[in-house]
């Protein structure tokens, strides 16, 4: 997070001032983040001012590494705006958000399972679909949003479709979608995370997000999982 | 005695490989093991492999303690890669049925035993080794897994990009030295 400027040259397609704005070292002076220095001292860096290498850090430090919801809401709003400027329609926008979520999801999966399994002598992966779906509903949601999702449903019409339902998705809490874009669900990002987790576990699926409001929960969202045919065939064999 | 490690991405692209020459053999810590298998690395099988590869494996360009034949680092490198690749079929069969991440001794080819480790994200670590050392290999894979997760957290790293980090390399070598 606190790399010196040269690293940010990747982003400096725009002007220098915006690169400075992006740099956390510059912004830490601007917004005076008190946590920035305390992180450095807590981890005991060999040289002051030099960031500890990721390989020196403990992956299990979760308590102090929570991200403030407002900081995330700000970041996510920028992500949506940035993406919206570069797409031609709602479908395209959802697809891009899904891709971004996918990149986050691959990391969520590895890190989450590492935290859960690394202390065990014989670490395990999920290979069946239903346990994997359960662990997405509880573990992944807890790792990403701090609480489990609200429900899992199986489609009545199509046997390859499953749904995870969140009554109040935290990433959409500060988003109000304009009327002319009411098809859009910014939870496509979450759908991407779910898709990455399933893909990583060897259960390929197409995952999409749909806004399904009810009287009680106006921002209720359904994450629809459409499984690949190969997954169903394998589940049949493993039964 | 040598070990060969390959890290393969979900699409089976090699993203990191390491050849480690164990110096543990002459040490007292593994003397019981080495006395059980006294001339393992210079056995008749090694000759078979040499014949298979069509090259002399006894190229002593690198001095190795204990006088063991240096394998896999020179001209017979492609044989090692072939064995690792061939083991993928077996690994993919086993990983669909078994939920364990550490698959010990899934495949054998001449004197080489293949052990593998599958991360939840379908990353495969493949290790070719000549002697039985389950606990050491388990600990080694565990270290590599942790290092890999840390590499993975880099936003500029994708599942298919080769790992070129010097720190990663150093840490993996240190762990290999410790456990293998």
How would you describe the overall organization of this protein?
The complex is a heterodimer of chains A (239) and B (180). Chain A is built from 8 helices and 4 strands, in the order ααααααββαββα. Chain A is α+β, with helices and mostly antiparallel strands and 239 residues long. Chain A has 2 domains: 53 residues, no CATH class; 168 residues, Muramoyl-pentapeptide Carboxypeptidase, domain 2. A 4-stranded antiparallel β-sheet of chain A has the order 1-2-4-3. In chain A, a hairpin with a 6-residue loop joins β1 and β2. With 180 residues, chain B is of the alpha+beta class. Chain B has a single domain, classed as Beta-Lactamase (2-Layer Sandwich). Helix content of chain B is 39%, strand content 20%. Chain B is built from 5 helices and 5 strands; from the N terminus they run ββαααβββαα. In chain B, strands 2-1-5-4-3 form a 5-stranded antiparallel β-sheet. In chain B, α4 runs antiparallel to α5.
Key traits:
heterodimer; A: 239 residues; alpha+beta; Muramoyl-pentapeptide Carboxypeptidase, domain 2; 2 domains; 8 helices; 10% strand; disordered N terminus; B: 180 residues; Beta-Lactamase; five-stranded antiparallel beta sheet; 5 helices; 5 strands; 39% helix; 20% strand; Longin-like_dom_sf (chain B); Sedlin (chain B); TRAPP_component (chain A)
Q: Give the CATH superfamily of the largest domain in chain A.
A: Trafficking protein particle complex subunit 3
From the alpha carbons, calculate the radius of gyration of chain A and give it in angstroms: 20 Å
CATH topology group of chain B: Beta-Lactamase
Oligomer: heterodimer
Order of helices and strands of chain B: EEHHHEEEHH
Low-confidence stretches of chain A: 1-46
Produce a short descriptive summary.
The complex is a heterodimer of chains A (239) and B (180). Chain A has 239 residues and is of the alpha+beta class. Helices cover 45% and strands 10% of the residues of chain A.
């Amino acid at each position: 997070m606190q790399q010196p400027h040269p690293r940010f040259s990747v982003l400096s397609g725009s002007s220098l001032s915006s690169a400075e704005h992006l740099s956390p070292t510059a912004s830490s002076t601007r917004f005076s983040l008190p946590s920035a220095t305390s992180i450095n001292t807590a981890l005991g860096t060999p040289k002051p001012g030099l960031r500890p290498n990721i390989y020196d850090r403990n992956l299990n430090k979760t308590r102090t590494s929570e991200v403030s919801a407002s900081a995330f809401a700000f970041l996510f709003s920028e992500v949506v705006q940035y993406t919206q400027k570069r797409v031609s329609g709602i479908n395209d926008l959802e697809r891009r958000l899904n891709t971004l979520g996918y990149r986050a999801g691959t990391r969520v999966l590895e890190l989450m399972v590492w935290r859960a399994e690394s202390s065990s002598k014989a670490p395990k992966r999920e290979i069946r679909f239903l346990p994997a779906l359960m662990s997405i509903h509880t573990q992944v949601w807890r790792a990403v949003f701090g609480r489990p999702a609200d429900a899992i449903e199986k489609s009545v019409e199509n046997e390859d479709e499953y749904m995870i339902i969140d009554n109040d998705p935290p990433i959409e809490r500060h988003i109000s979608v304009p009327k002319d874009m009411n098809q859009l669900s910014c939870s496509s990002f979450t759908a991407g995370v779910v898709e990455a987790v399933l893909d990583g576990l060897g259960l390929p699926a197409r995952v999409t997000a749909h806004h399904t409001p009810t009287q009680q929960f106006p921002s209720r969202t359904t994450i629809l999982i459409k499984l690949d045919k190969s997954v169903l065939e394998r589940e049949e064999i493993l039964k | 005695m040598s070990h060969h490690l390959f890290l393969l991405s979900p699409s089976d692209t090699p993203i990191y490989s390491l050849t480690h020459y164990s110096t543990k053999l002459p040490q007292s810590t593994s003397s019981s093991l080495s006395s059980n298998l006294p001339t393992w690395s210079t056995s008749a099988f090694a000759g078979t492999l040499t014949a298979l590869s069509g090259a002399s494996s006894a190229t002593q360009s690198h001095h190795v303690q204990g006088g063991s034949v240096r394998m896999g680092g020179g001209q017979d490198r492609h044989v090692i890669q072939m064995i690792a690749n061939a083991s993928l079929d077996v690994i993919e069969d086993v990983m669909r049925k078994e939920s364990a991440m550490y698959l010990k001794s899934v495949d054998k080819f001449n004197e080489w035993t293949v052990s593998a480790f599958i991360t939840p994200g379908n990353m495969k670590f493949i290790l070719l080794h000549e002697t039985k050392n389950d606990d050491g290999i388990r600990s080694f894979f565990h270290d590599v897994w942790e290092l890999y997760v840390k590499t993975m957290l880099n936003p500029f790293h994708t599942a298919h990009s080769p790992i070129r980090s010097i720190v990663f390399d150093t840490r993996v070598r240190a762990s290999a030295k410790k456990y293998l």
